[in-house]
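Example 3.2
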Amino acid sequence: EQAARTLTLLRQRDGDGCARCRRPLRFDLPAGHDRGARIEPMQPAAAGEADPLANLRLTHGRCNTSGSDDTAQ
């Protein structure tokens, strides 16, 4: 339930575009789909701390992989 609330708040704040590639996110796909939305921290959280909303963004599953090219834009 907390993840759904966070997702809703991020959509309200940032819209429905991927923070990395700017293409539209799909919210109707099953969990784990590469075009589905994933919540990504912008900076790693300190040990034991929950990620505050200000440090989170929405990305595609395929854009949210280790080694992805991330521009500062």
